[in-house]
Amino acid sequence: MKRTLSRLAGILLVGSLAVSCSKETIEPVAGPTATPQTADASATRDNNLALGNPSGAVADPAYYWNYLVTKSQYTMSYHRDRGTPNWVSWHLSSAWLGSTPRQDNFGPDNSLPSGWYRVTSTSYTGSGFDRGHNCPSADRTGSIADNTATFLMSNMIPQAPQNNQRTWAGLENYCRTLVDAGNELYIICGSYGKGGTGSNGYATTLDAGRVTVPARVWKVVVVIPNGTGDAARVTTSTRVIAINTPNDNSLTTTWGSYRTTVDAIEQATGYDLLSAVSASVQSVVEARVDNGPTS
């Protein structure tokens, strides 16, 4: 009898193991091109233009002053005759972040229309202005291709070194702390006007007049928890950070000193920011100056 029970127990044990193995999910081994795991499993890479096209940019070379450039890493309106973007819009969540190091491979954007002047990595050399990213390198570290895209010269403006390396760097770093806290951001960065002051003094253009030095640099950051249906989730209580700075070397390190309203930036540029958000929500959040933390 004991022998029979022992054999029966063995059969049941084998059957149990077989059922268990049949339900086990085998995860594929990640290859060298696999997307890195994100800090937040709910984070995704979303449409960089989900909150609207601020200037109604068009992917037609005839609109050389408002030419739409769409890349997987960001979307922009490019101005051929200024040699800089009017604005660049991108989505930021932990799904975009990884361990890819800064590539520093500045280069021309060969996707621009044939016959257009393509700003090069040396166009700013000796000017006293930084090659200032609109979409930052550190916001696109998921792959070498993502990081490389941020070093295209179409993503750059001549930016005063103290403006770029202190004020703007501080805001960019703060944005990534918001991502670490479980948020996703929609960011629009742009510039306007003519003439800035770099480390060599005041200038209006670089590269034999082919690159315009902007007078002002601005940014709008919309902060929402990770989720879906993003434009519809922007409410009157959503935090919207807007700053507008002069393009010179006298800026303080505290980016919060330059906060303004989205309405004020729209008035200065003629753009319709956050146009995909409901009009009733826009009227509230665009008129408000952010007073939240800065670090």
UniProtKB/TrEMBL annotation:
Signal peptide start-end: 1-20
All residue ranges annotated as the DNA/RNA non-specific endonuclease/pyrophosphatase/phosphodiesterase domain in the record: 70-280
Gene3D superfamilies associated with the record: Extracellular Endonuclease, subunit A (3.40.570.10)
Record-listed Mg(2+) binding positions: 164
PROSITE patterns, sorted: PROKAR_LIPOPROTEIN (PS51257)
UniProt key word Signal: yes
Top-level taxonomic group: Bacteria
UniProt feature, compositional bias: Polar residues: 34-47
SUPFAM superfamilies found in the cross-reference section: His-Me finger endonucleases
Residue positions of the active site: 133
Protein name: DNA/RNA non-specific endonuclease
Organism (species): Hymenobacter fodinae
Organism lineage: Bacteria, Pseudomonadati, Bacteroidota, Cytophagia, Cytophagales
